[in-house]
Structures are given as structure tokens and as C-alpha cells.
Amino acid sequence: MSTASTRSTASGSKTGGRLRPKVFTYALGVWVLTVVLAIANAGFRETIIAPSTSELLAHQLSTVTLIVLIALLSYAYFTRWAFEHTRAELVGVGVLWLGLTVAFEFLFGHYVAGNSWSSILEQYDLLAGYVWIFIPLTVLVAPLVFGYYLRG
Predict the structure, then answer these.
(1) What average pLDDT score do residues 88-107 get?
(2) Exposure on the CB side of residue 69, measured as CA atoms within 13 A
(3) What is the DSSP letter of 36?
(4) Which of 77, 104, 122, 147 has the highest CB neighbour number within 10 Å of its CB?
């Protein structure tokens, strides 16, 4: 039997490889906090960073800042506050966060913020120096990294 299917939950029971709905409910709450951090980060970028630097450098600095914020929140949640998760649950949380993040980026960015589809896609162009692709990658791997590999 694999380690992922036999890890104990905080209550001491085995999950038997089943995905527990509460895992995704709590994960959704953490993702909402991530959105709040992302919006605050964007405000910081536009008011503090962007006026004194190029748009590209502001994008890059803001992306790195958000990656650090996501990592800190993930670390705090998965190593300090959360109950234990199976590896399958952590992969599921990462996929959930990825889907929500990309959907939010495109739908909010286009329909609420009024950005064109091409300007949203431009943020993913590594060859042009844009590094936003690392945000979806971070939310995808953060649950597994912090909830499985780094959990003490």
C-alpha cells in the first residue's frame, strides 16, 4: 500500500485513499485568501512599484512578490494549521487552485478589469520577459511541496 493512501489524518484515522470533501472546502478558503493577497499585491505594484520603474520590471517584481506570498500562506496552512492530507488530496488541491487561478485571471481580467484577451495572454510570454506563468505553476505545486514534502 502506498504512503499516500495510509497517511493518518490529524484525528488518527486512515483515509484509505479516498478524497475528503472538507479538504477542498478548506482549500477553497485558502485560495480566496490568495486572491486577496494577489489584489493587494497588484495595488502595491500599481501605486508603489510601477511609477518608478518600467512596466515589465514592475510585472516581474510583482510576480516574485506574489510567489513569495503564496509560498508563505501555503507553508503556514499546510504545515501549521491544516490537518494531514494524502498525496492525492494535495495534488487535487493544486489542480483546484490552478483551475481557479487561471479562470479568475482570464475571466476577472477580461470581463471586470477590461483587459483584452491578448494582453492577458501576453503575461505568459516568457520570451518577452513576462513571468506570470510561474504563478499558476506555484499554486499547482505549493500544496504538494508544503503539505507533503515539507510537513514535519
Answers:
(1) 97
(2) 19
(3) H
(4) 147
Evaluate whether 93 touches 141 at the Cβ level (below 8 Å): no
Whether residue 17 contacts residue 5, with contact meaning beta carbons closer than 8 Å, is answered with yes
pLDDT tens digits for 120-138?
A: 999 999 999 999 999 999 9
Q: Which residues contact residue 85 at a Cβ distance below 8 angstroms, ignoring those fewer than 6 apart?
A: 7, 23, 78, 93, 143, 147, 148
Side chain identity at residue 83, one-letter code: F
- Phi and psi at 39, nearest 5°, equal -70, -40
- Give the model's pLDDT for residue 151: 73
Q: Directed axis angle between helix 21-44 and helix 134-144, to 10°?
A: 140
How far apart are the C-alpha atoms of 60 and 55, rounded to whole Å? 9
Q: Helix or strand or coil: residue 14?
A: strand
pLDDT of residue 16: 55
The DSSP output letter for 8 is: B
Would you tell me the crossing angle of helices 21-44 and 87-107 to the nearest 10 degrees?
40
| 88 has pLDDT over 80 | yes
Contacts of residue 87, defined as CB under 8 A and 6 or more positions apart, other chains included, come to: 2, 3, 4, 7, 144, 148
